Amino acid sequence: PEGTEHRLTTAYADTPTASSMSEVFDFHTVKPSTFEVGPFTVHTERVAHPVEAYAIRVEHGGRSLTYSGDTGVTPVLDELAHDTDLFLCEAAFTHGKENIPDLHLNGREAGESAARAGARHLVLTHIPPWTDPAVNLADAREAYAGAVEVATAGAVYEI
User: Fold this and answer.
1) Which end of the chain has fewer surrounding CB within 10 Å, N or C?
2) Residue-level pLDDT at 83
3) How many helices (H) and strands (E) are present in the chain, helices listed first?
4) How far lies 65's CA from each of 26, 47, 60, 92, in Å?
5) 3-state class (DSSP) for residue 83
6) Domain boundary assignment for the chain
7) Rounded CA gap, 54 and 122, in Å?
8) What is the mean pLDDT of each run of 10 residues along the chain (159 residues)?
9) What order of strands is seen across the sheet that includes strand 147-150?
10) Domain 31-150 has CATH 3.40.640.10
11) Where would I find the H helices in the chain?
């Protein structure tokens, strides 16, 4: 999003300069769009979140991966994830516990989004330590009949 370089420079540089981060990283402002990166087609859409946030879909060779980013429930996410092979979807909240609109999804909402989108495989991610992943997994499975699991360090997914 707009201003990312400045925010990162301010947060992480001991003695920030205007080019502290750009000496190491190549920054590009993301907007809702479609663009090419090497052999990949990338689609970005703004999602429901208090600060500017985007979901991303990457396609190549007729296969796709969709990543929700931080979001609340939104039809934009369902549309972007339509018929995706792998849906990496955040599920930070617990159904029935946190109910803060347009901030994060819970496991049930992630499952519902995957079901509406017709995703083939759902992987729940962005689950904080105070949220029980087993509860979110069970909630996602109630809403989504496809393959679903919780992201784990080192996992590999073939698309």
Assistant:
1) N
2) 98
3) 4, 7
4) 23, 17, 9, 20
5) coil
6) 1-28, 31-150
7) 18
8) 84 73 86 96 97 96 98 98 98 94 96 98 97 98 98 95
9) 33-37, 40-46, 54-60, 63-67, 86-90, 121-125, 147-150
10) no
11) 4-12, 75-80, 107-117, 133-143
